[in-house]
Structures are given as structure tokens and as C-alpha cells.
Amino acid sequence: MSVRGPVACLDIDYFFAQAEELRNPSIKNRPVVVCVYSGRAPDAGAVATCNYVARKFGVRAGMAIRQALARLNDADAVFLPVDMEYYRALSARVFSIAAGFSDALEIASIDEAFLDLSSKSGGDYSAALDLTRSLKAAIARETGLSCSIGVARNKLLAKMASADSKPDGLLVVWPGTELEYLRPKPVDELPYVGRKTAEILHSVGVRTVGELSRVQADVLVGLLGYKIGQYLHLASRGEYDEPVGTRREAEQMSRIVTLRAPSRSIDEIFPQLERAIADLYSRVLSRGVFFQGVSVIGITRGMQTITRSILLTRASQDLGELMSTARELLRDLLDDKGRELRRVGVRVYRLTGARGQSKLTQF
Predict the structure, then answer these.
(1) Could you tell me how far CA 342 lies from the centroid of its own chain?
(2) Are 346 and 280 in contact (CB under 8 A)?
(3) Of the listed 21, 106, 112, 239, which one is catalytic?
(4) How many distinct structural domains can be found in the chain?
(5) Exposure pattern of 145-159 as b/e (b: 16+ CB <10 Å)?
(6) Residue 224 near residue 333 (C-beta atoms within 8 A)
(7) What is the 3-state secondary structure (H, E, C) of 264-320?
(8) Are residues 14 and 142 in the same domain?
């Protein structure tokens, strides 16, 4: 395997919650939960992110606010709304610092970026280690924020190393150790491998990246289609060498939930869809994108998929507009009184301002 790089992945630790701790240091040792409030009820919506204190109680991004409140009932927790203007300003400062340490900078989202270190380090991984140590120190000194950094031969490995180094860590996947690093990992730790893809791989006896690397590419293509199969074939060998700065914009984002019970009532369905909308909206904010198209997806008891879509008059990043549009589309979808849904979802498309990929199928 030819050695390339080094590339770094910089990930600001629990960004929204850390930003709130920075603004108000008195809350630092308490559970801090930053939420996307839907407005339907005081506790309706989804968790955007939380600090590590809250995570010890089982709180996670995407969780319903009501569920997070229940888990933190006696924990003196702080629940705050997202403040994107503040977060964007902090993010811009971090990435401005990072740009000075790299040959090329690719901003993947509001809290993550990839750095090409090949010239700055002269291709030497020890030099890259020193460079990223200095970068972490500069970010902490100039913004007060901690970040985690992974360094490796390509973006995919660097992203995994960054995740493994959290919080406030730095991990190098040294040349020649890539396969050793990958082999024991569960397949769902590969970036962009979701639950459904992992379940398909599990069904054929593939649970680790090492096992995945031994599956022929044509078998993976037959199981999962050409794009995903080829991606998994290369990723499992550490050979997905996408250059820094070449990511395509995200084309769409979606979120689908299974209803507690099949229903045809908008009053029963929409409160459950509301959480999916809030979760999707937090992803829209973190990606820094605006949407113009909105779809509602319904899956019936007979597994028929029905959609209703609309193009807004202008690109938007407004939660209220997304909520109201989705409710009207759901009402239209349910107009057939005999149509009973078991799953429901929302999708945004015609995205502008996107800086990164949102899911595996865009590779």
C-alpha cells in the first residue's frame, strides 16, 4: 500500500455545548444540553448536542428533549436553545487558525475540517504530529476551545482517528499501521456506514472491518450497489484516498421514524414526526446549508411509499417554516382516509451553501 498524506481531521469537541460553557463557565461541570426547540410545546424538539457530563446520563444528539429531561431529572442540568450566529463566529475563528497550519483546508461542517499537511510537514508524520500539537495549542489559546485531531494517510482514516482521540486528543495512524488499526473495528465505525448497511453486512457474517476487507468487491456491489460496494471495498483497506478539498455538496438530507402504532391521524403522527424534523434541522444547521425543497414521506402498512413535496419560493433555514410546511404536506398525504402509515419521514433538498457530504450514498 503506497503511503500518502499526511491529512488531518480537526473536530471541535461537543461544539455547541462547549461554546455555551465558554460563554458561561459556571455551567461547565453540569450537564449541558443544547436543543432545537420545535415550538409546539415547551419541551418539544430534539437534542442538537450535549457535553460529556450529560452523555454519562445517556443523553445523545437526536434524542427527544422530553427523553433527555427525564434522564437528567435530578442532575441540575442546563437546557439551552441553539445560537447559530454565536457558533458560526467561533467556528470561523477556529478554521481561520487551522488554515495557517495547512496547505489546503476543507470545511466539512460547522465543527469539522480536513487539512492537507503534505507540504507543511514535508510528508513526515512526526512533523505532522508536531504541527497538529501546535494547532491544538493555538486554538485553545486563541478561542478557549478544545478539539480532537486525527492524522493519517487520507481523510477517512483521519476522521476515524479523530473520533478515537476524543475528547481533546490527538491520534496518528502511522504509515504501515493502517490495516492493523482498521481490522478490529466494527463495520459501523467506518464513516458513513449506517444501521441498515451494517445490518446487511451482519446478515452475511461480516462484523469487523477486517472481515469486510476480505470480501471481494463484486460481492459487496451485489449486496449494496456499485457506489456503496466500491466505497466499502476501498475504505476497509484504508485506500479511500479522496483528496482534501474535493467533496461534493450534499444533495439532500432526510430523517424517517417508525410510529409507535400504525395511524392515519395527523394529531397522532405529527408529534412523532416533529422530533425527526427537529433532528434533521440540527443537521441542517451543523452543515451550514439552506433548503428550498421539502418532502414528507409516508410508508403504509402494506409497505407502499408515498411522498408529498413542495419547492419554497426561496432557500430557507427557518425551523418554523420547515415545521409548518411539513405539517401541510403530511395533511395532504393523509387526505386518503384509508391510508394508514407505519413510518413517516421528512426530507430537505435543493440545498445551497453545503460544504460536505451527509451520507454514504453521495460517495
Answers:
(1) 26
(2) yes
(3) 112
(4) 3
(5) bbbbbbbbbbbbbbb
(6) no
(7) CCHHHHHHHHHHHHHHHHHHHHHHCCEEEEEEEEEEECCCCEEEEEEEEEEEECCHH
(8) yes
Q: Could you read off the pLDDT of 219-277 as tens digits, one per residue?
A: 999 999 998 999 999 999 999 988 888 454 557 888 888 898 999 899 899 988 988 89
- Amino acid letter, residue 101: F
Instruction: Say how many CA atoms lie within 13 Å of 266 toward its Cβ.
Output: 14
The amino acid at residue 264 is: R
Asked if residues 37 and 65 have their Cβ atoms less than 8 Å apart, the reply is: yes
Contacts 24+ apart (CB under 8 A), 192-199: 192/231, 192/357, 192/359, 192/360, 192/363, 193/232, 193/360, 194/359, 194/360, 197/224, 197/228, 197/232, 197/360
Q: How many CB atoms within 10 Å of residue 267?
A: 7
pTM of the model: 0.76
Residue 62, pLDDT score: 82
| Residue 203, domain extent | 180-235
Residue 246 domain flag: no
What does the chain come to in residues?
A: 363
Reply yes or no on whether 112 is catalytic.
Answer: yes
